[in-house]
Amino acid sequence: MMMVKYGVLRLMGLSGKVRVIDELHAYDAYMSQILHRLLQWCKALEIPVVLLSATLPPAKKQQLLSAYTTEILQDQYPAVTAVTASGRLLERPITSSVMQRRSVRFYTTRKKSRRWPEN
Q1: Among the listed residues 41, 50, 44, the one whose alpha carbon sits nearest the alpha carbon of residue 83
Q2: 75-106 confidence digits (pLDDT tens)
Q3: Which residues contact residue 35 at a Cβ distance below 8 angstroms, ignoring those fewer than 6 apart?
Q4: How far apart (Å, rounded) are the C-alpha atoms in residues 76 and 57?
Q5: What is the Cβ-side half-sphere exposure of residue 82, based on CA atoms within 13 angstroms?
Q6: Which of 15, 63, 104, 119 has the CA that lies 20 to 30 A from 72?
Q7: CA–CA distance from 19 to each of 15, 42, 104 (Å)?
Q8: For residue 90, what pLDDT is reported?
Q9: pLDDT score recorded for residue 98
Q10: Which H/E stretch holds residue 8?
Q11: What pTM was computed for the model?
Q12: DSSP bridge partners of 91
């Protein structure tokens, strides 16, 4: 149970939404424990979670995924990792063909007036 006021109510506020948590590698040990507990609750309440990090160490990745599965990571890098609702671990390595360099052009338009439209 969350040791905060209205903890259950706050958790129910997360249901029906997707949690996106970015820059996982930047969290300290204290925050990682809080995040792990949140992930356990998200699993119990069937709240989808997307965890993002380009440089997450394998041990920390395994620790966070332990809220969802007991399977052991293959330690593929770079990779996209997912856990199914039944707890099956899926890892898909990102091949060099996906990581090709591409050029993209952006075109912007500027309006002369930046005022809000009047009703």
Answers
A1: 50
A2: 788 888 999 888 899 998 887 765 677 787 87
A3: 21, 24, 27, 64
A4: 11
A5: 8
A6: 15
A7: 9, 9, 29
A8: 92
A9: 59
A10: helix 7-14
A11: 0.69
A12: 81
CA–CA dist 71, 21 (Å, integer):
22
Q: What's the mean pLDDT in 41-57? A: 89
DSSP labels, 20-72: EE--GGG--HHHHHHHHHHHHHHHHTT--EEE--SS--HHHHHHHHTTT--PP
d(CA 66, CA 54) in angstroms, rounded, equals 19
Per residue in 1-13, pLDDT (tens digit) is 556 777 777 777 8
Question: What pLDDT is stored for residue 118 in this prediction?
Answer: 59
- Give the total residue count for the chain: 119
Residue with tokens 């293959």: 74
Query: Between 58-65 and 29-44, two packed helices, what is the crossing angle to 10 degrees?
Result: 40
SS3 call for 89: strand
Q: Round to whole Å and give the CA distance between 65 and 67.
A: 5
Q: Which two tokens stand for residue 17?
A: 């939404």
